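Lecture notes, continued. The same structure-token format from the folding unit now serves as the input rather than the output. Read the line below as a description of shape only.
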């Protein structure tokens, strides 16, 4: 009788020890990495990833020549990726693997952070929500800095939570790591500096002792100082983001879909997040440490950067775009994980507690499956440069030339340098490395025909960003035709642009 009665308590104790140990963070990280790796090489590399390839395949000296006038805000990412690319190359898998690893690290951090703020079930649920989230996979499969910002934001937030713990005797140790973590976040993407504002709200809601306040202010100042310098240095590079939209209800709706994962996920994610806030505030889920509540940590993190960016964009030049707030996505996973943990307290009988959790998980997972499939299509990015590269690979011959109708087309072709690099760039006057930019410098249209005089076959590439009625584009197209006579040997249209192959049918006759 005694032995029978002790088994449930022994089983509960084992589960408690398991949830409090390293297994949940490791499992969440492993699951996130496994999901991220599914189809990671299928989506085509595109324009932004072409920039990563173009920059990281240069010498450090050539790279440093670019930053005074271009991409300074991405300098740290490029410099971190350069040795990785030197070892592993520029395939889609090699380029995107660091992002997948960063998302896995974020999953482990979320499991630990949620456990500390709201208990082991909330931590495990947050890590699992993160692993299954469509946006996690989307940015895990992108060779840019966004996944790294999410991982560093989780680290910085964990360090803050530890420093705010009322039982912590030496909080300065955590603040010593907090300041460089926030600085690194800002150097990976400048908008990440707004995590300081979110953390300021967290500190305010936590109401720590005056000494802790002063330490946080000092750490924030140390982190912000180099980021202010970076901001001032990047002021002259605003032309890179002239395309950003003005704040509107459509922009706000797009941001809500981004934070929740998809239009179909808005309602269930918001509902579970609100339940998570309620569970955190009510204290129905036990917390083993006298620390900041999960609501005080996650709500400002999820909302404050977006609100500030939209406010600034409404009164000055636009600076907001949804992917710039990827580092806020972990906060949403924390809130949803807290909501799932809160559902465990709804039913009185332990056997019935799994029912609402399983139902909520199904509501999240089922709509996500379609989004995961869409993310992994070859043409899921704005530029399907693999389709263009496949056409060139299949039909190009030795001696073929290519004319990019503008520098943006040359930039996009950098996504597949092993293919487009085999073609002679007949329209370039200064290549991107020598020009210290991503587009290079083009010949004037009148200089093109002599360059093509001895060419039997020429490819012409357009790009989605180009206005077909732009006079310079029209003149460049006419210049190619004047170098003929040609016959059109093939046309390939793909997402993001088109390619045309011309073959010579007669000798070139100069009009001069």
């Amino acid at each position: 009788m005694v032995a029978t009665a002790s088994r449930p308590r022994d089983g509960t104790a084992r589960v408690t020890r398991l949830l409090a140990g390293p297994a949940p963070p490791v499992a969440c990280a492993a699951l996130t990495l496994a999901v991220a790796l599914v189809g990671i090489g299928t989506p085509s590399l595109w324009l932004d990833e072409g920039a990563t390839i173009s920059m990281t395949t240069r010498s450090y000296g050539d790279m440093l020549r670019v930053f005074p006038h271009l991409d300074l805000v991405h300098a740290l990412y490029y410099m971190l990726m350069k040795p990785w690319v030197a070892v592993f190359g520029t395939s889609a898998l090699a380029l995107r693997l660091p992002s997948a690893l960063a998302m896995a690290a974020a999953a482990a951090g979320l499991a630990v952070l949620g456990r500390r703020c709201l208990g082991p079930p909330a931590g495990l649920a947050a890590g699992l929500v993160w692993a299954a989230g469509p946006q996690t996979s989307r940015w895990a499969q992108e060779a840019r800095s966004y996944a790294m910002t999410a991982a560093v934001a989780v680290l910085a937030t964990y360090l803050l939570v530890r420093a705010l713990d009322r039982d912590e005797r030496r909080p300065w140790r955590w603040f010593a790591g907090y300041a460089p973590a926030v600085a690194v976040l800002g150097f990976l993407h400048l908008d990440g500096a707004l995590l300081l504002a979110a953390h300021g709200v967290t500190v305010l809601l936590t109401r720590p002792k005056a000494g802790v306040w002063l330490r946080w202010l000092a750490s924030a100042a140390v982190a912000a100082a180099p980021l202010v310098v970076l901001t001032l240095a990047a002021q002259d590079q605003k032309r890179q983001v002239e395309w950003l939209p003005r704040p509107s209800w459509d922009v706000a709706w797009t941001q809500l879909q981004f934070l929740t994962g998809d239009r179909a996920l808005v309602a269930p994610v918001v509902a579970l997040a609100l339940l998570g806030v309620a569970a955190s505030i009510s204290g129905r889920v036990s917390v083993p440490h006298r620390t900041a509540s999960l609501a005080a940590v996650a709500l400002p993190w999820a909302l404050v950067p977006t609100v500030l960016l939209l406010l600034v964009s409404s009164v000055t030049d636009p600076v907001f775009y949804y992917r710039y707030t990827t580092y806020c996505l972990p906060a949403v996973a924390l809130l949803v994980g807290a909501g799932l943990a809160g559902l465990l307290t709804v039913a009185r009988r332990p056997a019935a507690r799994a029912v609402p959790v399983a139902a909520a998980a199904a509501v999240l997972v089922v709509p996500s499956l379609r989004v995961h499939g869409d993310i992994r299509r070859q043409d899921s990015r704005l530029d399907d440069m693999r389709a263009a590269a496949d056409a060139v690979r299949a039909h190009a011959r030795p001696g073929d030339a290519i004319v990019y109708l503008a520098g943006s087309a040359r930039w996009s072709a950098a996504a597949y340098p092993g293919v487009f690099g085999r073609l002679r760039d007949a329209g370039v006057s200064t290549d991107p490395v020598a020009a210290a930019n991503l587009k290079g410098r083009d010949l004037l249209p009148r200089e093109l025909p002599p360059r093509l005089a001895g060419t039997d076959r020429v490819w012409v590439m357009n790009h989605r960003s180009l206005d077909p009625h732009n006079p310079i584009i029209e003149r460049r197209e006419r210049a190619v035709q004047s170098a003929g006579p040609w016959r059109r040997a093939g046309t390939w249209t793909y997402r993001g642009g088109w390619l045309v192959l011309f073959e010579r049918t007669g000798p070139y006759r100069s009009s001069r």
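Point for the exam: DSSP finds 23 helices and seven strands in the chain.
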